[in-house]
Write a structure and sequence with these properties.
Layout (H helix, E strand, L loop, with lengths): L2 H6 L4 E3 L2 E5 L2 E9 L8 H17 L4 E9 L3 H9 L9 H17 L3 E12 L15 H20 L4 E4 L2 H11 L16
Antiparallel strand pairs: 1-2, 2-3, 3-5, 3-6, 4-5
Length: about 200
């Protein structure tokens, strides 16, 4: 992990679905798959807002909501389409050319943005230990169990709103942290941004 990033966010360990941030402080990050709120009727929108507010007010642990806006680059996608032009039936090739030109025109006028929604949950082991711990011993299993319980509460509450969540695995968590601190993995040697 980059030294600068580690000073801002002192990560000691990243495991599947959980990070040890500082001594006995643990973090879990989940990604929420959003619903298309704008396509709902005004009555449905009002009901969703009330249900979401009730859900948040009903949580008995802190969460941090994080929205990332990533500008999409379609250059590679267009090049890939163009490279497959010969494998497409001849009568469809003009449509492919029109589609590629349409995307180029659209991107030249408007930047394409993909928004990602994350929920960050924290758990602090201090004062909550159920067994005696020696100095420096990690409470990883206890933290993982509590954060998974909290994840399940989030999942059940958001499922009623039509929102699905998924826990970030170890490589995706690292990519998330790097991108959140302005470190584009594509700029790193051998790096690629291929979100699952």
């Amino acid at each position: 992990m980059d030294v600068y990033m580690n000073k801002l966010f002192p990560i000691q360990a990243i495991g599947p679905g959980i990070c040890l941030v500082h001594k006995d402080r643990y973090v879990a990050i989940v990604e929420a798959q959003p619903i298309n709120f704008a396509l709902r009727s005004p009555e449905e929108q009002e009901q969703l807002i009330k249900s979401y507010a009730n859900f948040l007010n009903g949580l008995n642990f802190p969460v941090q909501l994080f929205v990332r806006s990533d500008f999409l680059r379609v250059d590679e996608y267009l090049a890939d389409l163009k490279s497959h032009e010969e494998s497409i039936e001849a009568h469809l090739r003009p449509s492919l050319g029109d589609y590629i030109q349409f995307l180029r025109d659209t991107v030249s006028v408007n930047r394409l943005v993909k928004r990602r929604f994350y929920i960050v949950m924290y758990w602090q082991a201090l004062g909550l230990r159920t067994t005696g711990r020696t100095a420096g011993e990690f409470v990883w299993d206890e933290a993982e169990q509590e954060l998974m319980r909290r994840r399940e509460i989030l999942s059940q509450g958001l499922r009623g709103l039509g929102i699905q969540i998924r826990t970030l695995d170890q490589p995706t968590t690292l990519k998330f942290l790097q991108a959140s601190f302005g470190q584009d993995p594509r700029a790193m040697p051998g790096g690629k941004m291929d979100w699952a």
